[in-house]
Design a protein that fits this description.
The complex is a heterodimer. Helix content of chain A is 66%, strand content 7%. By secondary structure, chain A is an alpha+beta fold. In chain A, strands 2-3-1-4 form a 4-stranded antiparallel β-sheet. In chain A, helix 2 runs antiparallel to helix 6 and helix 2 (33-69) packs antiparallel against helix 10. The longest helix of chain A is centred in the middle third of the chain and has 43 residues, at 167-209. By secondary structure, chain B is an alpha/beta fold. In chain B, helix 3 crosses helix 4. Chain B has a domain at 96-162. The chains are: A alpha+beta, B alpha/beta.
Chain lengths: 324, 226
């Protein structure tokens, strides 16, 4: 008969230090890891795209706004008995009297006929047509002269003059930018919701696959927080890896687009694209947004799995009433 | 027999039914005194495992009162439950070892879930493994262990926390008679060091080796032979 006492000699040879007591209690392989990482990566990519698009749109819109807002236009329609040159001078003088006006440039006849050329053809005798004349009023940076007063004086003192401060344009631009931001936010919310639901399903799957583990932990006196942390650890790592991959993908896409648009900036269609979308560059704020997003998605993944585990373990507790 | 100030476990008129079926356990009234040793026996299907599950609070009775460490089991709050379970050592009939953890890690699990530092219990775990004769199987995964070795690992896991009560379901069911005798001696030694022991078994040969209190379940009712 072998007595336990006869064994210490053999035990002495065993290198105890090689034990890895921190082996994870929930085996990594038991969690549908790769598929979920991939899903999280895709979600993070889409979410990063929306963040990037919002960054581009808001930056471009504000660029447009500041460009447009630095100029206003005075238009003088032709009236009988009015000498156009004098009207232009008067209007320029009035405009210059206001604070914040840097300079006033009259668009000369040649320029006006160039503007009209696409519609009326070349060789136009502009004097023979009742073509309104334009004055470009350039403002100091950030200045906002009293446009109402300027408009009033112009209309009173120069017949046929009107002031266009591009307000309708700016309002329309604002609306469009807001609509884009709103749509992007909605898409972002849906992507996040889909991520959360995916993680819920994956956690439930992992809990089902590790039912024995959870039960044993339960019986040896583990509390809910301990059990949850065993799962949460995996999901945090998984969420971080997936989100980082997706975010990096989106950032790489933006960088590539930036290169592409700057390489084409000399060409006519490149100029058109950049006139519309700016330089396609997502500024530092956009990249910072992507980093925050990656952390957010990883956090949401871990938190979701924790809540799901808590809920599941509570169900295990209530299910112990055998007398249903 | 005088009433102990606090029983480890006390059942009063406990009945259990699953769903709307008949009562499989009826009118159970008994107590597990501190530092006591008892066999729980009866024919297969008499409800031994159900009774054990009632004792380790993984089932709720349909009627009657179950008290554990002086607390009404129905009123134990969820947050208290882990602390109660840590005072209860359980050896399952099917061992329930985690196959991806080594013998050492399995046995250390009850301490690990308490958040204890590994350095604080490593020696204890190794000592205990040597004591149950698994000194050479410390770093082996359960699938490699024989039935008897798994049995001993499961027992070691139940003992590592020095529980007040040990509940063992057929702990000698998978081992040959010499090993069964050894395990019995292990339980007796444990009892001498202060743990109340409940061994569910239908092995008459085992019970004949040690004169102890017997709880006999028959057709859902309990007879006690002190």
């Amino acid at each position: 008969m072998t007595e336990p006492a006869s064994e210490p000699r053999a035990v002495a040879r065993i290198p105890v230090q090689t034990a890895s007591p921190r082996a994870s209690i929930v085996p990594r392989e038991s969690i549908a890891g790769r598929a979920l990482t991939f899903v999280v990566a895709i979600m993070a990519f889409l979410a990063s795209l929306t963040v990037g698009v919002v960054a581009i749109v808001s930056e471009t819109a504000s660029q447009w706004r500041s460009d447009i807002a630095r100029e206003v236009t005075i238009q003088i329609r032709l009236f009988e008995d009015v000498e156009m040159d004098k009207a232009i001078r008067d209007a320029g003088r009035i405009a210059l009297e206001f604070d914040g006006v840097a300079k006033v440039t009259a668009v000369d006849e040649a320029a006006v006929s160039r503007l009209l050329e696409p519609w009326l053809g070349s060789g136009l005798a502009i004097d023979e047509l009742p073509v309104p004349r334009l004055l470009t009023v350039t403002l100091d940076n950030g200045a906002a002269p009293n446009f109402a007063a300027m408009r009033q004086r112009l209309e009173a003192e120069v017949p046929g003059a009107s002031l266009d401060d591009h307000r309708a344009w700016i309002a329309r631009l604002n609306n469009m930018a807001w609509a884009m931001v709103l749509v992007a936010t909605a898409i972002f919310a849906m992507v996040m919701a889909a991520t959360v639901l995916n993680v819920v399903f994956a956690t439930r799957g992992a809990m089902a696959a590790n039912r024995d583990v959870v039960e044993v932990l339960h019986f040896v006196g583990a509390d809910v927080a301990f059990i949850a942390s065993q799962f949460q650890r995996h999901f945090l790592v998984l969420g971080l890896a997936g989100a980082a991959a997706g975010g990096a993908g989106a950032a790489a896409l933006f960088i590539a687009l930036g290169f592409w648009s700057s390489a084409r900036s000399a060409t006519p269609d490149g100029d058109q694209v950049s006139a519309l979308f700016g330089t396609f560059s997502v500024g530092p704020a956009g990249y910072a947004g992507i980093v925050v997003l990656v952390a957010l998605i990883a956090g949401v993944t871990a938190l979701t799995s924790r809540l799901t585990v808590n809920q599941h373990v509570r169900m295990l507790e209530t299910a112990r009433s055998g007398a249903v | 027999m005088s009433h102990e100030p606090q029983d480890m476990i006390r059942f009063e008129n406990v009945g259990l039914r699953y769903g709307f079926g008949p009562e499989i356990l009826s009118d159970l009234t008994f107590r597990i005194a501190p530092n006591s040793f008892q066999f729980l026996t009866g024919p297969s299907g008499a409800g031994k495992t159900s009774l054990l599950r009632l004792m380790l609070l993984s089932l709720r009775p349909s009627r009657g009162l179950v008290t554990i460490f002086g607390k009404d089991a129905a009123r134990i709050r969820r947050t208290e439950m882990p602390f109660i379970r840590r005072q209860l050592g359980v050896v399952f009939q099917d061992f329930r070892l985690l196959d991806h953890l080594t013998t050492y890690q399995n046995v250390a699990l009850p301490l690990r879930v308490q958040g204890r530092d590994e350095a604080s219990y490593r020696t204890d775990v190794i000592e205990l493994l040597k004591w149950v004769g698994l000194g050479e199987r410390i770093h082996v995964l359960p699938p490699v262990l024989s039935g008897g070795e798994k049995q001993r690992a499961a027992i070691a896991r139940a003992l590592i926390n020095q529980p007040d009560v040990l509940l063992a379901d057929e702990p000698t069911g998978n081992v040959d008679p010499p090993l069964a005798r050894r395990l019995l001696r292990l339980f007796i030694e444990l009892n001498r060091s202060g743990t109340s022991v409940v061994i569910a078994t239908h092995d008459l040969g085992l019970m004949d080796q040690f004169d102890a209190r017997r709880l006999v379940l028959n057709q859902g009712r309990l007879q006690i032979y002190d």
